[in-house]
Amino acid sequence: MSAIPWLTIAIVLPLIGSVVVAAMPSSGAERAKQVTLAFSVLVLAVVAAMALQFSPGGPRFQFEEVYPWIPAFGISYAVGVDGIALLLILLSALLVPLVVLAGWNEVDASTSKYSTKTYFALILVLEAMMIAVFAATDVFLFYVVFEAMLIPVYFMIGGFGTGRRRYAAIKFLLYSLFGGLLMLVAVIGLYVAAGQQGEATFLWEPLAAMAADIDPATARWLFLGFFIAFAIKAPLWPVHTWLPSAAESARPGTAVLLVGVLDKVGTFGMLRFCLELFPEASRWAAWPIVILALISILYGAVVAIGQTDMMRLVAYTSVSHFGFIVLGVFAFTTQGHAGAALYMVNHGLSTGALFLIVGFLMLRRTERSQLIGDYTGVGRTAPLLAGTFLVAGLASLSLPGLSPFVSEFLVFMGTFTRYPVIAIIAALGVILAALYILWLYQRTMTGPRPEGAAPFADLSPRELLAVGPLVALLVLLGLFPQPMLDVVNPAVESTLEQVGATDPAPEVPAAAEEGTSE
Amino acid sequence: MTGILAADSAHEAVERASTAAADGGIHSLAWLLIAFPLLGAAILLLAGRRADRWGHWLGAAASLASFAVAVAAFTQLLGYAPEERSRIVPVYQWISTGSFTVDVNLLLDPLSISFALLITGVGSLIHIYSVGYMAHDEGRRRFFGYLNLFVAAMLTLVLADNFALLFVGWEGVGLASYLLIGFWQHKPSAAVAAKKAFVVNRVGDFGLLIAIMIMWSVFGTVAFGPVFEHIGEADQFTVTVIGLLLLLGACGKSAQLPLQSWLLDAMEGPTPVSALIHAATMVTAGVYLIVRAGLIFEASPVAQTTVAVVGAATLLAGAIIGCAKDDIKKALAGSTMSQIGYMVLAAGLGPIGYAAAIAHLLTHGFFKAGLFLGAGSVMHGMNDEVNMRRYGGLRKHMPVTFATFGIGYLAIIGLPPLSGYFTKEGIIESAWLRGDAFGFTLAGIMLLTAGLTAFYMSRIMFLTFFGPKRWAEGAHPHESPGSMTIPMVILAVGSVALGGLLVLVFHFAEFIAPVTGAEVHHFNPLSPTGLVALGLMVAGVAVAWVMYGRAPAEKLATAPRGSVFTRAARADLYGDALNESLLMRPGQRLAHASVAVDDHGVDGIVNGLAGAVRGLSGRLRLQQSGFARSYALSMFFGAALVVGAMLVVQL
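YS: structure for the whole thing
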């Protein structure tokens, strides 16, 4: 397609950066941070330049590159993006420099026995993998990156985290590995099934083309292999408990990338792999999955209300939000899918901002407490901190005017036409969201400062630079979401075509066509 | 016969739902209505301290600029023939995916422009008043930013031409209300009240959101015109459900039973906020919604009747609460509930009531805003004291406040020929003219409440401005500065004249008829209901005079224990107690139980297994492998559970 291998550049660049950072002397932590920041900004520039070349009206996959990798097994290095993958890569490339900026002083010799530069080198490794996982159009390549991504995160939590970090890291790893194993079996099974159809391949496009021909019983088992892996990643109730532990023990920056981007691989995978490679099995499994999604929405929100730890609270709100995304995916409607795709991006922005600000709060206390009860009246002396926290929180509760509203609204519209009762019950989540966010805000930001407490310092310019872009995007994409929808819509249409679903028609069509109304 | 009637009503629906594209003039600039205050809010909230010196004037200017656009748009609208006064102004496409489209289109018609004038007009006065009222508050710039944000959101609400955009304004005013109730958020009571208001409103929004989903599913659109035009083709049950859900939304925003509990607490906000948001404009949004969606309620008698019943219950409840409160703002808040109850009831009477509801809404906007500003002026002069038992005899010390408050008082109790007399009488008569038992009952409740209104308003008046002084030590009441009294005077003029002007001169019912389809009926100064209302009003004032006007200071200074009824009214008729025992406490228990289940159940099974395997060994390697085994095991069971569930469901 294009002469410039955009995606490969975007994947290799952070890898080079990580090697450079790792090779630097351990004493020069400050320089390591600067180099990391420079590389991540460069990656963002490359990805942004690529996004500008993307043509929504063009072919579904763009910037494709295919090179044989292990020809004996038909494995290729194949990358390419559709609109949804493009947005998620943009999100990843945007969040990394912000996380680096925000986490400048988050990790130091006092918090870890490993050298500080390692943390930043790991961030760049992770960035390369995040871009690769969304770009992969070879199922095996996708699987490899899906598993390899665990390694940097494992060390970022286990080596640089807080509290029970070893426990959390192992829990995270084991849950993920278990899902990954099931997926590996399914990936191999898919290869075999494709071979029976005459073309043994791991390439996504030919696999999708033959999706309807695979034996339905086999397809269902393969579907489950992929789905369970993605459900653990997303995470969906009841395999969600690793997430609150991981978020609680992770550095806020790690949590941003983990919850904001990595978990999206689960929901992205459901759309791209479960639905399109196993359309019949997806329809077969839709009802139970929709129920699980509904439970996630309400359960995550209720448990979030009862949390005493801010990081855990935000993690549980994400369980609730992921329920909405999965609901949109399995609604099989244009609005549900477009809403789910947008939700992945918007949730990354809002939850990213929330984690970062919680991180700023923690750094202001010498003992770095994460407990809600240790903070009160912060807004009195730190209005910027409180203000950005409120905007991020309002985004999380899907206030109209901010971008998450658009995606949640579309998910509701798209779900209702397919599962009206589910959509109505899910809408209770709207009330619960107001409770968990505003109660958190009330307890931490409002009220008097405790007697004798030192005034809370407001955001520093560096911190403002880290969280400001997220807040600005939440507002901007809330008022003007259409550019994102234009990018996503073609991918949504072809997914629905592949699943064989059409939007339910209205009973009393009243949409005014030009000239029909008097 | 019914066929012809159905055809007629379908034709009428098409007429009332029809719109035309805007044809230039100021209408093509209607987006400025929202843009001015939105820009003002953005500047005020982002500029930081450097805008502290001039920020409040910028806020007031933004509101006034918006008012100027509203006046110009209104004038242009009057230039059209009445049936052509519904104009759509496209701004941009907001959301489009598949066949689902939401446009940012503004609808200019007699109903929306009436609201726009009220919001920007009274809004500007309150901006000006706040310059003085908030002069000593270090957060004044932020306050004006929030006020501007409110004006922008409220204008979005009333100018939207579809339910999705209306919802944006709907939650937007909820946000502004949240921010302003909690403006003094270092006070825990203010922060709690703000959160409560938002959450209770969200319960209403939940209803509105589901109504929008149903409309999209049934009609394939959420735009007003097409939905209203085809509402008759949907089945009766669906229409009733949509109507009841819209009513739930209206109840949240307009503090109607059973979602009334937030309004009294909302008085924690600065008094100009109580005047603008929690009296004149935002709380009337529910009335707007019901009248705007009138064709939906007319298509469902059940939903329509429910509207009237909710209004009747709230207007009585609000008045009873108003009778017992000693806090001047809470007494006025009870009164607001009650007056909005009148409007909701009127909106539940169908086309005959719509014009009456909106007319009362407009005059109420003036006199209630004036009353709140007067209360603010009193508090300003009394070191922020709100307890009326600590007032007394203020008329000599605050003559302008006394005069303007007094005029608002006479207007709300319905003394002819002040504003409230015309518009309240319009509502009572609309119910009476139904001619059936339901109509007579409603009229009876409203007449009774008219007497109660006269009583509780006189109680406020006498406790505050008459009788002996009962001031706290160090109180030096003084008249407020001009920036505060001038808006009060202008509102007082409106309280005197607006009702008569609207009803007798401007023929408001005819003006709004293209939207509401009202059969216009003319005001009758000597109607039987009007005479009864006057009699009850006099009685209410007289009782209050005996109880509060000439009682000695020591009797007034402390609240008596009161009867069962008084104590119930003081406790907001136990609305909060009910919420707490039915919703909050079980909710908290649920949250705690869920956390326990998640920590010890879902996760605990995993950890318990790990612990068992770990045994007594403290060595790390064993620990890790113990974890590994137990996690693998539990995840295996978890996965098996999911697979099993899927197989079971499919069998």
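YS: worth flagging: Strands of chain B lie at 20-21, 87-97, 100-108.
IM: good catch. Also Residues 16-209+263-283 of chain B form one domain.
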